[in-house]
Design brief:
mainly alpha
């Protein structure tokens, strides 16, 4: 209710809209969340959480291509938004795109410091991924993991 009052003063506040969409998503009101978050992300200065929750909402609704698009847009601007990597991995996995799924799950675990799980996913992705940029990222990440002290 407080967010709705804030938005009555400024209906085009991207932060307020993103926050309201997040609240709707977290309370299970995914259809309402989708409309609010689509509006929020159409405005300049959208918060990273607006794109993140838009992607999660699409994923929840089963629109995996739209989820991927939203989460990849987020990562273009905020490459360190670790949770986006996890849900990108989930979305690609639901589409049956295992190499990309392993790639993004590997990066999620890499960014979270779970070296063993990161290495597992990155090695799996490395076998079948075709994108040369992703292959280079995998190589660099695996090189870093090799240099870390063993537990």
């Amino acid at each position: 209710q407080l967010l709705q009052r804030v938005l009555t003063r400024n209906a085009l506040d991207p932060m307020g809209l993103a926050d309201l969409g997040k609240v709707y998503f977290l309370s299970g009101r995914t259809r309402e969340a989708l409309q609010i978050l689509k509006g929020a992300t159409s405005l300049p200065d959208t918060s990273p959480e607006g794109w993140f929750y838009l992607g999660r909402t699409y994923l929840e609704l089963g629109d995996h291509p739209a989820a991927i698009d939203s989460l990849e847009r987020l990562l273009l601007v905020h490459a360190d938004y670790a949770q986006a990597y996890y849900f990108l991995g989930e979305a690609y996995g639901k589409m049956g795109r295992s190499p990309e799924s392993h790639y993004f799950l590997g990066l999620f675990h890499f960014k979270r410091g779970d070296d063993r799980t990161a290495q597992h996913h990155l090695l799996r992705a490395q076998k079948d991924i075709q994108d040369p940029n992703k292959l280079e990222t995998i190589k660099k990440s695996l090189d870093i993991l090799k240099k870390l002290p063993k537990e």
